[in-house]
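Subject: Sanity check before I submit

Could someone independently write out the structure tokens for this chain? I want to compare against mine line by line before I put it in a report. The sequence has 160 residues.
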Amino acid sequence: MSSSKHELDAPPWRRVDSTIMRTARAIRQAYEQRFAQLGLNLSQASVLAFLDESGAVTQTNLATGLGLGKAAAGSIIDALQGRGLVERKPDQSDRRVWLVAVTDAGRKLAGPVQEIDRILRGDLRNGISRQERQQLAGLLVRLQSNLDGILDSGTGRTDS
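---
Independent answer below. Compare away.
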């Protein structure tokens, strides 16, 4: 009998969690590799695609929409603005607020970003049925809900 070192061969209390974490890291790495072809990282590509789809938004709304902190969103915006892909402009209804908008150059790059995303999502779903994806999504949503409760309670409870 051969000794396998795959996490699915680990004890049950370790294999699901470690498989999810390892898969999440690998997905992120795949996106990072693909977007590097455009001179972008995953976060920059996500901001660009979000702005292209949603139009001009505040930095706060952008951060919330992408699940980022405001400071992290600001750093990404700064980098994209430095490349002329996004711009900050005053909100006409509230001069105290700045809106972040994609520029024409950013719009041209958003198309390839969306195409890379479409192709990679297809590659990731290869051999996985719609029903299996829906089941996985449902399980992950429930897991996320459990995590939200754990993080919100701050109890660090370890019994299950």
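---
OP: Matches mine. For the report I'm noting this point. Residues 12-36 form the longest helix (25 residues).
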